[in-house]
Amino acid sequence: MFNRMAGMTERLRIGGVSYLNSKPLLEDLPGLLPEAEVRLDYPSRLADDLCAGRLDVALIPSVEHFRGKNYEIVSDACVAARGPVLSVKLYTRKPWGDIRTLALDQGSRTSATLARILLAERYGVFPDLQPLPLGNTTRDTDADAILLIGDRAMFTPEEPFLGTWDLGEEWFEWTGLPFVFAMWVARPNVTNHHLEVEPALETARDRGVERLEQIARREAPLLGLSLKVTEKYLTENLHYRMESAERSGLRWFYELAVRNGLAPQGVDLVFRNLARVG
Q1: The pLDDT of residue 9 is above 70
Q2: In a designed cystine with 169, which of 52, 62, 84, 208 is the match (CB 3.0 to 4.6 A)?
Q3: 19 and 54 together in one domain
Q4: Same domain? 96 vs 215
């Protein structure tokens, strides 16, 4: 039980992402942590709730670790890609170097930062930003370029575009490194008295990886995706363990975010019970 004097709640509050890409990380998690409260939401909302103290542990956009909140990475379970990711797309109506306005999926944080880094580093483009509400489509904005993430990014837009980037693929071809889109983090000292959280997150991931085809069969009809696309996405496009290459990619992402004024300097990437990155 948490100590109220330490500013903690009695029940551990865990936030998981509601997108298909995170389902393998959540397999059996409520049963593995029966005394915890597990809820699902969009990654940007989870990041806000963790920052505000409404969650103790959450699967949040990796860029949120760079915001200087002294978060700790509490598991090697993550959502990463070593090439095309399929569910993070940047569409443009103009040549890449002529982009002046960029509409950002309001569910995104890490992908929004990655898109801005790629445009700045490769084309010297620093567009004005516009929000794209979660219920809106590409036709609801006149921005030069539009970022979509999550399940809706897996569907081809109704309108034609001049160009499309799969941001996982663009990052990998540019850097040769994997990209970590989301990872489990905790507020400082939150899990000191709940050490079962870390193995539970990894056990959930391991079970999910063992059941990828089962998850695909379960989720495909709910999303209106074909079973073939869903299986390929879960088994080939995504990677769920943060290994040394993923950590290197995470560090390089942080350095580029700092260089482009998108993250503060001097933030340690801290892994609980593991070495710091960098």
Answers
A1: no
A2: 84
A3: yes
A4: no
Q: Are residues 190 and 132 in the same domain?
A: no
What is the per-residue pLDDT across 173-220, written as a single tens digit (0 to 9) for each? 999 999 999 999 998 877 554 567 889 999 999 999 999 999 999 999
Rounded to whole angstroms, the Cα distance separating 210 from 213 reads 8
**What CATH number did the domain enclosing 217 receive?**
3.40.190.10
Tell me the C-alpha distance between 127 and 134, whole Å: 21
The closest of 223, 274, 256 to 110, measured between CA atoms, is 256
Query: In terms of Cα–Cα distance, which of 179, 157, 147, 170 is closest to 247?
Result: 179
Nearest C-alpha neighbor of 79 from the set 240, 192, 223, 214: 240
Of the residues 131, 152, 175, the one at which a domain ends = 175
Match 């598991």 to its residue by tokens: 75
Contact 99, 144 (CB under 8 A): yes
137 and 93 within one domain? yes
Contact 136, 208 (CB under 8 A): no
Task: Provide the token pair at 239.
Answer: 């990677």
Range of the domain at 16: 4-79+180-259
